[in-house]
Each structure stands twice: as structure tokens, then as C-alpha cells.
Amino acid sequence: MKLLNKKYYFIYVGSFIILTMLIMAIFAPLFSSQDPNSMNLSQRFLSPSANHIFGLDQNGSDVFSKVVFGARVSLLVAIFVVGISMFLGLIFGSIAGYYGGKIDQLLMRIIDMLYAFPGFLLAIAVVAVLGPSLRNLIFALCITGWTGYARLVRGEVLHLKTREYVQSARAIGAKVPRILVWHIWPNLLGPLIVQISFGMAGTIISESGLSFLGLGVPPDVPSWGALLNSGRQALLDAPHISIFPGLFIVLLVLGFNLLGDGLRDILDPKKTS
Asked: Are 251 and 21 in contact (CB under 8 A)?
């Protein structure tokens, strides 16, 4: 019983953090009425106060506004990258696992090559060549992001295709797309949800890292990683510039990890309460 409560505790806390961040991102103008790109050089590096609860940065811009609007970038990139990666991984992993043979060998060798290459370094190279933009950032993170989903799906399909209900559907003449969509994919929902939760956390870290290096979104778009980079130059004089975006990154990543841990414990059939 205690273990079960602990599982749900992780889910509740993680869901609360994620939902709070999501609401903040969607209704950002309601949380902060100030323009995140407005400048007031006469008050640059201002410490947190009643009017500016997170202080001002090196350009005199409100840090709270940049943090609030920066949540949009992190969540938007994470949703698109994870969504595209999951779709590609589901398709190619299902093909490799269901058909097997040479098709499986070919797809898995391609996946192994991409999976073995450091994804963050490849993303840096791609964005450096194509230029910093939201579209290029999503594309760069998707190049290797789908491989983990493909390997997970392939392993599950290899097991599920031998089950009786799949064999029965095949015996009555059901086509492969129907078997996958109606008989195999619904049983992949549990593992995929857990993978998505951890994938969101990893994507947020990658996006923040690329933005920190100046290879994320354009400079006029508020980003947690870019704000961290700008505060690095004045860390001793104005630590608030880096502390608050870093805290929000930690909280959001923690939320997805807690949610993933709780879901993994509940959805894992090998564990009992």
C-alpha cells in the first residue's frame, strides 16, 4: 500500500508541476504584462524588487517576463520533437518488429548508427549549418530522437505479434495495417507514455543547452537557455539572471521525470502493489 501511494505521489507532484508550467506558458500575457524584449538600460542588472520580482537583466529587460514567455519555447519544442519522434519511431519500429528478416536488419542498422552518434553534437552541427530558428531546432533534435522510440516499439512488437489474438486476426485474413492499429498499438500505450514523459524532459534539456550555446531560437525570442547564457557573464554581480531560468528548467524536468517514474511503476506488469 505504501508503494502504491508513493507511485501516485510521484504522478500527482509531477502532473502539478507540468500543468502549472503549461498554464503559465499558454496564458503568459496574463502572468506578465511587460514586454520581455523591452529595454531600460538605466536599470540594468537591477536586483529583484516589488516591481520586478525576478530583477532585470543586462539590457534592463524583465527577467520574470522572459522566464514566463520562455516556457512557451521549451514546451513547444518538447511537444513537437517528442510527437514527431514518437510517430517516426512507431512506424519504423512496427515495420522492423512485425516483418523481421532483412527489413528488420536494414532498419535496425540505420537506427543503431544514429543511436550510437551523440545526438546533442549532431544537433549542434545541424543548427550551426542551417542557422538558429525554431524549425531548424526541432528538425535537429528529431534526427536522432526517434531512434529510442523505434527500438522500444520494435522490441514490444516482436513479443506482441506472437500473441494469440494477433495470430487469430492474421488467420481470418486481417491486413497488416489493421493488425498493427487495432491489435498491437493499443498494447504499446503504456511503454510509450513512459517513454514520452522521459523524452519530454530530455528534449527540454537539449533545447536549453542549444539555446545556451546560441544555437536555439533567434535572439528576439525569449528562451531559458539564452537567459542562462546572458546571466553567465554577470554571475557574480547579478546571479538572479541565471538562477531563475535555471530553477524553472530544473522544476519542469523534475516534473516530467517524476511523472515518468510513477507511470513506469504503475504500468509495469512485472511490479505488484
From this structure: yes
Backbone φ and ψ for 83, nearest 5 degrees, come out as -65, -45
DSSP 46: P
At 191, list the grid cell: 511503454
Query: Which residues have CB under 8 Å from 189's CB, separation 6+?
Result: none
Distances from the Cα of 84 to the Cαs of 142, 147, 175, 253, in angstroms?
7, 11, 25, 20
Residues 258-269 as b/e (b if ≥16 CB within 10 A, e otherwise) read bbbbbbbbbeee
Global pTM reads 0.91
Cα–Cα dist 126/73, whole Å: 19
**Cα–Cα distance list, 155 to 78, 115, 161 (Å):** 25, 15, 10
**Cβ pair 11, 258 in contact under 8 A:** yes
Nearest to 262 by CA among 4, 55, 82: 4
Question: What Rg, from alpha-carbon coordinates, does the chain have?
Answer: 22
> Residue 115 carries which DSSP code?
H
Distances in whole angstroms, Cα of residue 30 to Cα of each of 24, 68, 103: 8, 10, 52
CA distances from 243 to 48, 82, 121, 235 (A): 12, 27, 26, 9
CB count in 10 Å sphere of residue 232: 11
The candidate with the shortest Cα–Cα distance to 64, out of 211, 238, 240, is 240
Q: Are 11 and 261 a contacting pair, CB within 8 Å?
A: no
Tens digits of residue pLDDT in 98-140: 999 999 999 999 998 888 888 899 999 999 999 889 999 999 9
Burial bucket for residue 237 (CB in 10 Å: 0-12, 13-18, 19+): exposed
Give yes or no for a contact between 122 and 63, defined as CB atoms under 8 angstroms apart. Answer: no
